[in-house]
Design brief:
Strand content: under 5%
Number of helices: 5
Radius of gyration: 17 Å
CATH superfamily: 23S rRNA-intervening sequence
Number of strands: 0
Largest sheet: none
CATH topology: de novo design (two linked rop proteins)
Number of domains: 1
Distance between the termini: 9 Å
Order of helices and strands: HHHHH
Shape: elongated
CATH architecture: Up-down Bundle
CATH class: Mainly Alpha
């Protein structure tokens, strides 16, 4: 009898590209941008409320991607990436508020584009996982 976790990890590695999972790299890079944004907002603009919100949601995207790496099942993998999508969507909301309050247009456009790229990759990965054929157990 084969463990589902083993076959799942094999399939997941195929989707992730084995060594270089671009979603992981991009989510880390985005989180670092958000950390720098938080520092800029707190130290440079004395903005303490929205900065905390965007720090939490913007870094949670990568946390969910990393948690998904060790998901216990396909459903768990999809669930963790789905939470990542929600966090990215929330981050876009805080970016929009910051655009009206603190960020200039070019800062907003750059961060918003990166966040939307993460959403696109996450959604594509989730759709791929949901539509891939299920292995038959004999």
């Amino acid at each position: 009898m084969e463990l589902k976790v083993k076959s799942f990890k094999f399939d997941k590695l195929k989707i992730m590209g084995k060594k270089n999972w671009i979603l992981k790299d991009k989510s880390i890079a985005f989180a670092l941008r958000i950390v720098n944004l938080n520092k800029y907002l707190v130290e440079g603009k004395k903005e303490f409320v929205l900065s905390k919100q965007i720090l939490r949601s913007g870094t949670s995207i990568g946390a969910m991607v990393h948690e998904a790496e060790f998901a216990q099942s396909e459903a768990d993998f999809i669930h963790k990436l789905s939470i990542g999508v929600k966090e990215a969507n929330e981050t876009n909301y805080w970016l929009l508020l910051l655009k009206e309050h603190t960020l200039n247009e070019s800062e907003y456009i750059s961060l918003h584009a990166d966040c939307n790229e993460l959403i696109s990759i996450l959604v594509t990965t989730i759709k791929t996982m949901k539509t891939k054929p299920k292995p038959h157990n004999s």
